[in-house]
Design brief:
The protein is of the alpha/beta class and 272 residues long. The protein has helices at 2-17, 22-25, 66-77, 92-97, 112-117, 160-163, 180-189, 199-208, 238-249, 253-266, and strands spanning 31-36, 45-47, 55-56, 62-64, 81-86, 103-108, 118-120, 129-134, 152-154, 172-173, 194-198, 212-215, 230-234. It has two domains: 31-125 and 228-266, Periplasmic binding protein-like II (D-Maltodextrin-Binding Protein, domain 2), CATH 3.40.190.10; 129-215, 3-Layer(aba) Sandwich (D-Maltodextrin-Binding Protein, domain 2). Helix 8 (199-208) runs parallel beside helix 10 (253-266).
Length: 272
């Protein structure tokens, strides 16, 4: 009898130590770790202010942009918390395959080379390739990429932005730079005459920099390039790929366009 009382006392003590607040015992939601540069507006950028669309990436910085909103919507659909992992462009796929991040949502275009290393969803945004120039440039009225012959044209390293420049005969193909903010500064300083860009990026850059504009090209006279962007997931993680694809399918084309327009309108000025 004495032994039974001791057991009952121990059980009561354990129950008394347990939290009376159910939320303290609830299991935290899983985290979706999303890799992006946080330096490629309006797709993604870094800022010091919090906002309704921003996600903290450190104790002092936040990430915002089209990719951040899409990542947050997908995570919510999956019942997960989103975590943005700021990652250099060249380290995105290695980080994904090393397990440091779960997916890449960073304005990345699927290419045969990348598809050998990772799997991709269907595109979550599509646009056109243009060039950004200075307002006072004599290139403001061009309609054919071949009119860029003899000019200094700059692209971002290890992207289609850089690869397409070789489609211009006689162009001065400048050594690519690692970040888009550096490319904009090169253009503004007069070192570059034009920089390649997807249309939403060009819209964002021009909105934030009144000294710049962009030109589009006549049909059949522009760059031959795939400008769609997709979400990358590790080869072995097919379940996550399918779940992300299903969540992405719930975001309409109209909503995607609206999200991009909002991102362009609130992006900060390009800074080094």
């Amino acid at each position: 009898m004495k032994k039974l009382l001791l057991v009952l006392f121990a059980v009561l003590m354990l129950c008394g130590c347990a939290s009376s607040n159910p939320s303290e015992n609830a299991q935290a939601p899983a985290v979706l770790k999303v890799g992006m540069e946080c330096d490629y507006a309006p797709f993604n950028w870094t800022q010091v202010e919090d906002s309704d669309t921003a996600v903290a990436i450190s104790s002092v910085d936040y990430a915002d942009g089209y990719d951040v909103v899409i990542a947050s919507m997908i995570a919510e659909s999956l019942g997960m918390e989103v975590q943005i992992v700021k990652t250099d462009w060249d380290s995105l796929i290695p980080s994904l395959n090393a397990g440091a991040i779960d997916c890449i949502i960073a304005g990345m275009t699927e290419t045969p080379e990348r598809a050998e290393a990772v799997n991709f969803t269907t595109p979550y945004y599509e646009s056109d390739m243009v060039v950004i120039i200075r307002n006072d440039s004599d290139l403001v009225n061009i309609t054919d990429i071949q009119e860029l012959a003899g000019y200094n044209v700059l692209g971002q390293a290890n992207t289609t932005y850089d690869e397409v420049i070789d489609q211009i005969q006689g162009v001065n193909h400048m050594t690519p730079l690692a970040t888009y903010s550096r490319m904009v500064l090169s253009l503004q300083s007069g070192e570059a005459d034009a920089i390649t860009a997807e249309l939403p990026v060009a819209n964002g850059v021009v909105a934030a920099n009144p000294d710049l504009t962009y030109v589009t090209f006549a049909e059949g006279h522009g760059f031959v390039v795939d400008t769609s962007v997709s979400i990358a997931v590790a080869k072995e993680n097919t379940e996550l790929l399918n779940n992300i694809q299903n969540a992405l399918n719930q975001i309409s084309v109209e909503d995607r366009l609206s999200i991009m327009q909002d991102a362009v309108s609130r992006q900060p000025a390009v800074q080094e």
